[in-house]
Design goal:
Layout (H helix, E strand, L loop, with lengths): L1 H30 L4 E7 L5 E7 L21 H9 L6 H7 L3 E3 L9 H9 L8 E3 L1 H4 L7 H14 L2 H12 L11
Parallel strand pairs: 3-4
Antiparallel strand pairs: 1-2
Helix pairs in contact: 1-3, 4-6
Length: 183
């Protein structure tokens, strides 16, 4: 049932959100010259997939978890996109394709070995990763791997249609601040 919601929301989100996506894309061309950011992430069953987001950091920023990157890497447009969570909109494409869900554990990088171990131990990779979830609305990010994996497992165990909508509404209304970066 949740996959049906994922498909419908991502399809209509991309369809009706196209003007906003296009404007951000154009502004991003002037900001960094490369408005989209594509990165290989760990998906369901630990299979790789290519996550798509709007670029929020300069192009020469290393491919590591956000909490390991200096805040000076974030562009002016990127700061706005992160605050408003608009940088996440292109992930609707990943949801439409079935690589992700709207609600699920945030997909991590393959070089985040401690987080992979913690999530593996708790069976977090048995579900599709998501754009938002319990950890994100409670500002738990990838800098605390054990707590994040535990929170992801808690969300997976209690996920229902009601909590699915609760997490989406909390995210859209501004709860949670996304992955932290070093000051």
């Amino acid at each position: 049932m949740l996959r049906v919601f994922d498909f419908l929301f991502s399809f209509f989100g991309l369809l009706f959100g196209f003007p906003v996506l296009f404007i951000i894309f154009l502004v991003g061309l002037f900001d960094t010259g490369s408005p989209l950011f594509v990165q290989e992430r760990v998906g369901r069953g630990k299979k790789p997939f290519r996550l798509v987001k709007f670029r929020t950091m300069s192009k020469d920023t290393p491919s590591v978890a956000s909490h390991l990157v200096s805040s000076t890497s974030i562009t002016k447009l990127g700061g706005f996109l992160r605050r408003t969570k608009l940088d996440e909109l292109p992930q609707l494409w990943n949801v439409l394709l079935g690589d992700m869900s709207l609600v699920g554990p945030r997909p991590n990088l393959y070089n985040q070995e401690e987080l992979i171990k913690e999530r593996d131990n708790l069976g977090v990779y048995n579900v599709r990763p998501g754009i938002t979830g319990l950890a994100q609305i409670n500002e738990i990010d990838m800098s605390t791997p054990a707590l994040l994996a535990k929170t992801d497992r808690e969300m997976i165990d209690s996920l229902s249609v009601s909590s699915y909508f609760k997490y989406i509404l909390a995210t859209v209304s501004g709860k949670g601040s996304g992955d932290q970066v070093k000051s």
